[in-house]
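Throughout our pipeline, every protein is held as a single compact record rather than as scattered files. This encoding replaces a full spatial description with a residue-level series of whole-number codes. The remainder of this section carries one protein's record, kept here as part of the documentation.
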Amino acid sequence: MSNENEKMSADVQDAEINLREETADAAPEVADHDRVAELAAQLAEAQAAVMYAQAETQNVRRRAEKEAQDARAYAATAFARDILSVSDNLSRALQAIPADLREDEKLKGLVVGLEATGREIDSVFARHGISKIVAIGEPLDPNRHQAMMEVPTADAEPGNVVQEIQTGYMIKDRLLRPALVGVAKKPD
């Protein structure tokens, strides 16, 4: 039954097309109307294609601008990560100088110079959007802190950072290096 209905429908469509063609030969305005309708459909299709192409072009441009902006903002990430170890070593060197040697007139100039160098490194970091991560007293944030140990204490809420082993840094809104921390836990 279904095949017969399909065959009849196809026959009706063929008859309509043949009638239209025969009528178009006798009446040129019908042919003109059909041609105008066909051209209008092609125009609408072309306009839609142009609109989609323009939207895609705009999306590609935005994506390229974002990638270029990110490349400029984060180009120095690898270099900054390497310089962090220099800053860490300078800080450790300053902390290792005993108080009595800090007051010694022979070494005082050296200590002042090392401290000035540390301040300059911090200033350069700030100019390039590199900032220290605040860790002590904050709840552990796995996106910024790396827990190295648990410290039993009643002085802090469990899960809060109570010790900083190594300072962490951000470059603008991205993690440059996580802070290595000790996290409070309930005493036994």
Q: What stands out?
A: The beta strands are 130-132, 145-152, 161-166, 169-171, 174-177, 179-185. Residues 76-128 form one domain. The longest helix spans residues 28-74. The chain has three domains: 2-70, 76-128, 130-188.
